Amino acid sequence: GCIGDVCAHMPTQAGGGQGDLQMQQTGGIMKSVLIAFSMYSRLPVPQVEWDEKSRRYVLCAFPLVGLVLGILEAVCLLYLDRLRISSTPAACFMIAAALLYTGGFHVDGLLDTADALSSWKPCEERLRILKDPHIGAFGVIRGILYFLAAVGCLCILWEKRALFASAWGQACILCIPGGRTLAGVLSEMQGAAILVPALSRGMVAVCSLCLKNAKEEGSLYAMAGIREKKGPIAFTVAVLLCLVILLFLILGVFAGIPLLCAGVLLLYFLRVILPKFGGMTGDLAGWLLCMLELCMVFGLVISGFLQSTPAT
Do residues 138 and 222 make contact, with C-beta atoms less than 8 angstroms apart? Predict the structure, then answer.
């Protein structure tokens, strides 16, 4: 009788164990998302404990941080258009909104990496420069050039905000509350630009998880130096592929141009930049993210000109 009672309860216990495991996994993923937003944005989120399980999927949530940024930028575009703001102030407002959202976390890596690359010193000395809290003259100059280029590209995209007869416009009208207004304000190019923060962060996340770290310390190593990487890498690649497909649905074949620009930059990073530091660091990830965003927006500008050029 006792044996029978034990056997009768065994399936229930097993099922309960599986349910508890699923709850733990779901809780770990939610913690990873909260950690990602607390680190890579300035959104107020609940603070959670940092442990191996909660850090495992932090980089997987990095594209989500970028997607929220893209949505916020779309809202900014709506209000700027209603105020009839000209292209240059609109571009400056967009960059300022992005900096407020991220806290300039990645721009710090851009400037530090520019200083280190301009030093022409050995690998160990470059890594020391990355840790230096002071910004050198070369970092300031490269930063100014970067933001001038970003303002120029965003100005061009802002001026090309007439609605094209496209899948983008139809999707806005059919799927989004108030989408007709959104479709009337944003062009295909601007709609695709909303995906750029998510795409660039997905690429950086994959690089951070797959490439060797230059040192076993720092915030990037805390997120990328996990023991089990196969699951996070597979998940992040899947998210990245979904974003690429969505970009092709918006732009068609012209989506290949910003992706080609990003691919060229990634090749340059892997062949030229990364060997100079002996591996990935948080500052290098910030440099790569900023440059990917700029290259992809530049690719969207080229795509816009090609689309607006009449066929002969």
Answer: no
CA within 13 Å, CB half, 102: 24
Which residue matches tokens 């750029």? 196
Distance (Å, whole) CA 128 – CA 105? 19
Please count the other Cβ atoms lying within 10 Å of the Cβ belonging to residue 138: 15
Rounded Cα gap, residues 286 and 302, in angstroms: 25
Q: What is the pLDDT along the chain (312 residues), one digit of tens a residue?
A: 443 443 344 444 444 455 544 545 556 678 888 888 998 999 988 888 777 777 778 888 999 999 999 888 888 877 887 888 888 998 899 899 999 999 988 999 999 999 998 888 888 888 888 888 888 888 999 999 999 999 999 888 877 654 333 434 444 433 444 444 444 445 566 667 788 999 999 999 999 989 888 777 767 766 766 666 788 889 999 999 999 998 888 888 888 999 999 999 999 999 999 999 988 988 999 999 999 999 999 998 898 788 766 554
The amino acid present at 310, given as its one-letter code, is: P
Query: CB under 8 Å, gap of 24 or more: what pairs does 97-101 form?
Result: 97/72, 97/73, 98/69, 98/73, 98/197, 100/42, 101/41, 101/42, 101/43, 101/68, 101/69, 101/72
For 296, the token pair is 């992809």
Q: Is the pTM of this model over 0.90?
A: no
Is the CB of residue 170 less than 8 Å from the CB of residue 182? no
Give the dihedral of Cα atoms 297, 302, 307, 311; nearest 10 deg: -170
User: What CA–CA distance (Å, rounded) separates 276 from 308?
Assistant: 41
Cα angle, residue 197 at apex, residues 253 and 61 outer, rounded to 5°: 115
What CA–CA distance (Å, rounded) separates 260 from 243?
A: 15
